[in-house]
Design brief:
The structure is a homodimer. By secondary structure, chain A is an alpha/beta fold. Helix content of chain A is 40%, strand content 25%. Chain A is built from 13 helices and 17 strands. The longest helix of chain A has 20 residues, at 391-410. β14 of chain A pairs antiparallel with β14 of chain B.
């Protein structure tokens, strides 16, 4: 089955906002094997919307429209669709009673403008919208099933789940497409691609896609079939990708974060961590404390931007600072050990570097970062890296490498001692 | 003048990506008084794109299309537009030489597939694209000026600036619309709306729009006229909004950040700051160190999650912790003073609170935060607030309030002593 989508709202034609409802709709349609073939945005513009609808009705078996169902004069979806379908709008007594009831529940009388929201197209089915005032509408017109849905995402989500999805379930054969994701830290996209390449032959290149963002690659695989088949198949594919990528694959699903995985490993081992950060300005601490309940595993952090702060708070020897400079291996190691000891944690992370834009030298250009990890057995890991990008990206990448170093150590496979 | 926009690319019909090119285009069009009336996304789908173009050509004086100009078989924009216009595609020798030259400059031979990129519509003008291989094309068809532009944003930006904008300048009367923004910290949207209400009558409600995000409200005003008139008018409007909003208006323009403004004030005064943070996990430090050159004004931070860390590193008296609890006014004050003294800064920020989801009690529910500011004259500001939202939002709002407290103090107008 093929579908078309239209988002209505002049704010979606401005410079600040994009239609995001279509992402919700695309995901739902894919899971039910429906292909979205086009989407359009039109303003609160009866003429243009009517024309758009005339072009879609009869051409696609399924058309979804969001927005323009509000109570004010610039909400024109009902009128435009009525014109495009050659149907009348009539006031529906039950809908009116429902809208009035919603205002009454808030202790208010219904403003007269909201009466518009009780208008329905002749022959349409009213779709209850408990999260808002305007109901959705569903109608058949020239071989097209047309859904008119609210533009507010929270209301739309409810209607998609309780009205559109059941319709798709009834219509379809249960076959659909679903995606799963493996997330990979601190490997270049080209390396990830090389590693997953065998899977191209095994399951088809078009079913695997890579998306890189700084310090991370997302490997997405898709499975077809009914819901059960898809679950089994996705599981198999994700496991295969994980094997191919190796240990750098840190988790599944878009909700999974590197800090969340590190937090989970610390919790499992009953271990705690502290950080001594310079160039990252506390970003590692920040990320670790984003995890709910992080007080059990994160003790604290010292962000020491100045040399005296490094000496006084983290016991970095003055002699190290003067001989090697603040951005150096010995100082990174001292920051890690200092954080661990001063804050009383099992693990200490030390980071010092030059995030830029200023401060770079020929010997230590912008992007130079030293990272160290001090562990319970006093063994230390150190890495010296050159990171690309602007200040924000250098800091982000440094935090990513630090978390990945700790993750590897916790898995018992730190590489460089 | 009215315009329509089409983004081409199957990836824009998936669940992960949205067309963002239209934002660049909308901004440019507005500045030249052109109204974008509709936008559409179609896949790499010759049939559908041809149909879309047929619906637009002759109906809008200006149509812009991005994407689908690449070298592979799924790049169909040239073919689809040729069909819609009834024109032929021919290989252009100059374009071919240019594409070949670009590969040669990289020390490579041009792959045969790239020959497609040298195809141009008969009667079209070739638009040089120095940032990529495929040139843009411009043609007149049935009263429509049609621009075919690359989908890669960096390439698109270059062509908009050097090809589309000069065309708009030639065509238009110089009249356009431009927006300016005043950013407001830590005031509810309803309060900001109340304050700017007089401007609705003065300059028209439709020219002012408010957009709220956690801890911040953006007031956007628009000016019409030629470039000079707009600049003068925008300046006047922004100044008026700033007067109406009062001191909570911290800056102009979307690039302006609260931390940037605070950093600027510190720099002007030659002052430094340090933070002692608990629930925010170093977010204030993080934000302050995002400013380039922040090492001159930011000394460091102690993130003390545990009570012993608060005692040892920031000299919070054990007796305060046991008598009042870690989330309390005295502890916030001690964190601020401790950070200031231990790290040796002019200003100290102390934050302690319950970010959630766990840890709340009846007396101190999730969202309870105590903030304190210790200054050079030892005077202290304190605020006790209840913040709404989830963990991430509570932390963000707390950092926002802390920075705003410091900003007000630096302006010499801290309210609560």
């Amino acid at each position: 089955m093929e579908a078309a989508f239209v988002a209505v709202g002049s704010e979606l034609l401005g410079t600040q906002r994009l239609d995001t409802n279509s992402l919700l709709i695309t995901d739902l349609l894919r899971r039910h094997g429906v292909r979205l073939r086009r989407k359009a945005v039109v303003g609160d513009d009866e003429e243009e919307l009517c024309r758009e609808m005339q072009g879609l009705l009869g051409r696609f078996p399924l058309v979804l429209v969001t927005g323009g169902l509000g109570p004010t004069a610039d909400d024109v979806t009902r009128q435009a669709v009525a014109r495009a379908c050659g149907r009348e709008l009539v006031e529906d007594a039950a809908v009116l009673a429902d809208v009035e009831g919603k205002f009454r529940a808030l202790g208010r009388a219904m403003p007269e403008v909201n009466r518009r929201q009780a208008q329905v197209l002749v022959g349409s089915r009213v779709l209850a919208n408990p999260r808002g005032t305007a109901p959705g509408l569903c109608l058949e017109q020239g071989g097209t099933t047309l859904f008119l849905l609210p533009g507010v995402s929270r209301e739309l989500e409810g209607l998609l789940r309780h009205q559109v999805e059941p319709w798709l379930e009834d219509r379809g054969d249960g076959q659909g497409i679903e995606s799963g994701v493996v997330k990979v830290a601190c490997l270049p996209e080209s390396v990830v691609e090389e590693r997953v390449a065998p899977a191209y032959a095994e399951i088809g290149r078009e079913r695997i896609s890579l998306l890189a963002s700084p310090g991370e690659v997302r490997v997405e695989v898709t499975a077809r079939g009914d819901a059960d088949q898809r679950r089994v198949e996705l599981d198999r594919l994700l496991a295969r990708i994980e094997v191919l990528v190796g240990e750098a694959a840190y988790g599944r699903g878009d909700e999974t974060t590197l800090e969340g995985v590190v937090g989970g490993l610390l919790r499992e081992r009953g271990a705690t961590v502290a950080t001594g950060e310079s160039c990252t300005g506390g970003l590692v601490a920040q990320r670790l404390t984003e995890i709910p309940g992080s007080s059990e595993l994160f003790v604290g952090s010292v962000v020491a931007y100045s040399d005296p702060a490094k000496e006084r708070l983290l016991r970095v020897p003055a002699e190290e600072l003067s001989r090697h400079g603040a951005v150096s291996e010995p100082v990174a190691r001292s920051l890690a050990t200092g954080a661990r000891q001063v804050l009383g944690a099992d693990w200490g992370i030390g980071i010092t570097g030059i995030a830029g834009p200023g401060g770079g030298t020929e010997e230590k250009p912008v992007g130079t970062v030293h990272l160290a990890l001090a562990g319970p057995d006093e063994a230390q890991t150190h890495r010296h890296i050159r990171l690309p990008g602007d200040r924000r990206q250098v800091r982000w990448l440094a935090s990513q490498v630090a978390l990945e170093m700790l993750r590897r150590e916790l898995l018992g496979s730190g590489r460089q001692r």
